[in-house]
Known about the structure:
The structure is a homodimer.
Chain A: H1 3-9, H2 23-34, E1 45-50, H3 53-62, E2 74-80, H4 86-103, E3 106-107, H5 116-126, E4 133-142, H6 159-162, E5 163-165
Antiparallel strand pairs in A: 1-2, 2-4, 3-4
Helix pairs in contact in A: 2-4, 3-5
Amino acid sequence: MDTFDAVKTRLTVRSFKPDPVPVAVLEKILEAARVAPSSRNLQPWHFIVVRERSMLKEIGSIATSGKFVADAPLAIAIATDNADRPDLDSGRALQQMELVAWAEGLGTCFVGLRDETQNAKIKKLLGIPAEFDLITVLPFGYRTDDIGTSGSKKNRKALSEIAHSEKFGVPYVGQAPG
Amino acid sequence: MDTFDAVKTRLTVRSFKPDPVPVAVLEKILEAARVAPSSRNLQPWHFIVVRERSMLKEIGSIATSGKFVADAPLAIAIATDNADRPDLDSGRALQQMELVAWAEGLGTCFVGLRDETQNAKIKKLLGIPAEFDLITVLPFGYRTDDIGTSGSKKNRKALSEIAHSEKFGVPYVGQAPG
């Protein structure tokens, strides 16, 4: 799938077909993570691949904002170790993962684990050292047929609300000045 | 360009051809930002498009880690307003911008503006409200011919160093358990 098409059509997906994710596809998603850019190229990340049903269910039962993880065939936890900018590095890696997954017919939904108790429980479940930052657990699976054929369901601000020319508050215009 | 190919071949680019970035290409990059996912879909971001040479030079003279901005034909500053997770949302948007730009023959380099004095100076220059978070200024331009034909220059950890199966510390294996 073309890069811009993937970006344009990508939607957040919270329900998945039961089909397992083939190893070749999983490894493309992991490769998208591995080659992502990071602050000072520190690559401070770890990716825990979860496919055991009991583990997925347990994660879904802990994470109140990610109950759907329980029904995904795959989840990948992202944790960082002593990162300069844990959220920024993780955001770049996970977006590459999401786009590559999308291009393969899969979907995901970012699960923020900001509740400290839930975050700590999942770290313990996954054996992640307490001093690491657990950023998210991303479920992955083939998306169901009622989603993902168009980007029309995206609810986004207009470009005029978020883009500026040269200075904040000066409306963006296509043509360059001067 | 295929999504996975863009992810695999993308490199950080710090020198650019002098050619201006066509409006149609700039607007694909802005669209990649606009449709990016964000925490609770708050879309807390603003994108300031900078094309005036004097502004680009001034940014390059302030940002010690981004002197090359001075010589780019375009830069886009990302600032967030009261975001839940400024770095995470910005990381997701900027990675979509970077990949779409790469697929169009352009390159960029994340410029962290962690030095508070420099950050404040650039906010002032760009008229960004003091209470916003200025995350980065991304230069964009067509990449020079000696870069970007392969991903071979990427220096990355091996998958075995960063991937785990079910629990941290358990080596990743391709085949699912059970």
